[in-house]
Design a protein that fits this description.
mainly alpha
């Protein structure tokens, strides 16, 4: 469900629904509770409610901060993995210039198939949360076969051959890391703490009574808006390959790999 929402609605739309919906529900709940219990406006229990709000707010704030930082770090790590994989593939393409034309052509064919498969086949699968090794396995195996069948003839070729093999091994490792990140999501327990905490904390603000309704609604709306925006960050950062803030496949089209996209 979360993947479908991220892939079919803009971040702005999700922000309006999440933040706006949280604020509207909070304000409506506060008004209804105040009408049901007019005595809340006198603030007779504000001391107790204030202590409870402070304690719950501090705990919930630490949990949200931990979750958001963790998800942001995960997104940043995923971007680094993608950039590293594309860089290694580009370096192989450059190293291939030192090989005989036939070997270079075979290696270029394998690399071209690989980057096209990553962007055109594997990326949509990762956006949908269904990554597949098979989408690129044939092309990666072809690149390995080309290098395994080639026997360098000169010291110069040996140097570039060793570099190409190392970079191809790195491509395989980065591919595994990328597909692993595509399957990552926030553990269920942290999801319960993040979203369930909001269900506990926001209603507590209804109990903090103020004589002026406008001031109380401003207080409730501010807390609800902050929580709603935090939950929006958790929602959009949870899946690094889905939504508008997702990792881009652009590195596979740039630099030395751009030659494989020229029609």
């Amino acid at each position: 469900m979360s993947l479908w929402l991220l892939n079919h609605f803009s971040t702005f739309t999700l922000a309006v629904v999440t933040v706006g919906g949280t604020v509207v529900l909070a304000v409506a709940g506060s008004v209804l509770l105040r009408r049901r219990y007019p005595s809340l406006a006198r603030g007779e229990h504000n001391d107790m409610v204030g202590v409870t709000l402070g304690m719950f707010g501090a705990i919930y704030g630490i949990i949200l901060a931990f979750v958001i930082v963790t998800l942001w770090t995960q997104l940043d790590s995923t971007q680094t993995i993608v950039a590293s994989e594309a860089t290694d593939a580009a370096l192989i393409a450059r190293d291939a210039a030192a090989f005989p034309p036939a070997v270079r052509a075979d290696l270029d064919t394998a690399l071209s198939g690989y980057v096209h498969a990553v962007v055109e086949d594997q990326w949509p699968r990762m956006r949908a949360g269904q990554p597949s090794y098979g989408a690129t396995e044939v092309h990666l195996r072809s690149a390995f076969d080309v290098l395994q069948a080639y026997d360098p003839k000169s010291p110069r070729e040996e140097v570039f051959y060793e570099e190409a093999v190392n970079h191809l091994n790195d491509v395989a490792a980065q591919r595994r890391a990328r597909l692993t990140m595509a399957q990552q999501e926030l553990p269920p327990l942290l999801q319960v703490l993040a979203f369930g905490g909001a269900i506990v904390l926001v209603p507590l603000t209804f109990l903090y009574g103020m004589r002026k309704l406008r001031i109380q609604l401003l207080f409730v709306a501010s807390v609800a808006g902050l929580i709603g925006f935090s939950l929006l960050l958790v929602f959009v950062l949870d899946r690094p390959f889905a939504g508008e803030l997702s990792v881009s496949p652009a590195p596979y089209r740039e630099g030395a790999l751009a030659q494989y996209w020229v029609r």
